[in-house]
Design goal:
Blueprint: H1 6-32, H2 51-54, H3 57-60, E1 68-69, E2 75-76, E3 83-87, E4 95-100, E5 105-110, E6 113-117, E7 124-133, E8 144-145, E9 152-160, H4 167-170, E10 177-187, H5 192-198, E11 212-214, E12 230-235, E13 246-251, E14 255-258, H6 259-266, H7 274-289, H8 303-318, E15 336-337, H9 352-355, H10 359-363, H11 367-379
Helix pairs in contact: 1-7, 1-11, 7-8
GO molecular function, one term: zinc ion binding
InterPro entries: CA_dom (IPR001148), CA_dom_sf (IPR036398), Carbonic_anhydrase_a-class (IPR023561)
Pfam families: Carb_anhydrase (PF00194)
């Protein structure tokens, strides 16, 4: 193989410099691009650390969620009976509509979807369900059990239909909402119930994509097999405005999700124009190689690392991951349980306070210098 001519090498060097400059100049915009679309988010200029500025109760509230449930400190309550999860499949207007709202994937329910019993004074109408997950399999849930995080957490959000006619009216009122929380662990086997969501994710990969009509089904299929064993406490929304209006139920038994299904969820975008920005990076890379087309045998120095840089952007800036709030102090609350005897379990111990730190939050402002170092190292 003949070495590339000098002018080709010079062109390669120039193209790499141009691409590097492009990356450095566009990076701050990419990192903060979501701020102009949202009044709150999990990172960046409107991240968790800023919620208190516009939503005082997020910092000042004493009954905030999520929490770390220490099972030995829970108290048995015989009022907490098994739930009834009800949906009338024959109702002609029953619908489930899925969409990417820029912070999570949400499935809106329209029709006769209800939960009852479970220690609730009234029936609660299901408004929607949504998901929380992380970039790591052992750090993706909002609630912890004995200081252990799981892969994903599903929330079924409902409101007291006897007192309020909309979820918006109920959201700020004491015990206006009831949320069922299901923890998921990664498995090698697909969860058939989740296929209803996962198989439609590509159609809503980023915010602004059309909403997807799903086949209306009972939400019981998303819950663990045993729904008679659960924990109960009074808390808040885990997102702004952090209203302390939620009757929380966290099931003791976790569900499962396969690696393949989890990856499809992690491939969602949280930035409106993420795909466009990714394409701009790809075009910059491709433009940088055009000057060497006359010498196909010439290999661009650091070409593989250029792709790595693109992958880094995509993985840590565009993909919708780590959309969870850190655990909050329990304060004067007591966590109840619906069962008498605790099961023996040996969860993996983690530190909720530290482990919920988002990887994305660590990227800025050092990511520019890291990419510069990575790029120069590849050219060496």
């Amino acid at each position: 193989m003949k070495p590339a001519p000098l002018h080709a090498k010079m062109a390669q060097g120039t193209s790499h410099i141009n691409f590097l400059l492009f990356v450095i100049l566009i990076l701050p915009f990419i990192i903060q691009v979501s701020a102009k679309y949202y009044d709150w988010h999990y990172e960046g200029e409107v991240g968790i650390h800023t919620w208190h500025a516009n939503y005082n109760i997020c910092a000042a509230g004493n009954h905030q969620s999520p929490i770390d449930i220490i099972t030995k400190d829970t108290v048995y309550d015989d009022v907490l009976k098994e739930f009834i999860i009800w949906y009338n499949p024959h109702h002609p207007k029953g619908q489930m509509i899925a969409f990417n709202d820029g912070r999570t994937v949400k499935i809106k329910t329209i029709g006769k979807f209800y939960i009852a019993n479970g220690g609730l004074a009234n029936p609660y109408k299901i408004d929607h369900l949504h998901l929380h997950w992380g970039v790591k399999n052992n750090n993706g849930t909002e609630h912890y059990i004995n200081s252990q995080s799981f892969t994903m957490e599903l929330h079924i959000v409902s409101y007291d239909v006897k007192k309020y006619d909309t979820v918006q009216k109920a959201a700020s009122q004491p015990m206006g909402l009831a949320v069922l929380g299901v923890l998921f662990k990664e498995s090698d086997i697909d969860n058939p119930a989740l296929d209803l969501i996962v198989d439609n994710l590509k159609a809503m990969q980023q915010p602004g994509h059309p909403k997807v009509n799903l086949e209306a089904k009972s939400l019981r299929m998303f819950l663990p097999k045993d729904i008679s064993r659960y924990y109960r406490y009074n808390g808040s929304l885990t997102t702004p405005a952090c209203y302390e209006s939620v009757i929380w139920t966290i099931f003791e038994e976790y569900n499962f999700i396969s690696k393949k299904q989890m990856q499809k969820i992690r491939d969602l975008f949280y930035v409106y124009d993420a795909a466009e920005e990714q394409e701009r990076l790809n075009r910059a890379k491709n433009n940088g190689t055009e000057s060497t087309t006359e010498t196909p045998s010439a290999t661009l120095a650091g070409e593989g690392n250029t792709t790595d840089i693109n992958d880094l952007f995509r993985k840590y800036r565009f993909e919708m991951v780590n959309n969870f709030r850190p655990v909050q102090d329990l304060n004067d609350r007591t966590v109840l349980r619906s069962f008498k005897e605790l099961r023996k379990q040996s969860p993996i111990k983690t530190n909720p306070g530290n482990s919920t730190t988002s990887i994305n939050a660590l990227v800025h402002p050092w990511v520019t210098f890291f990419l510069l170092f990575l790029y120069l190292w590849a050219l060496a």
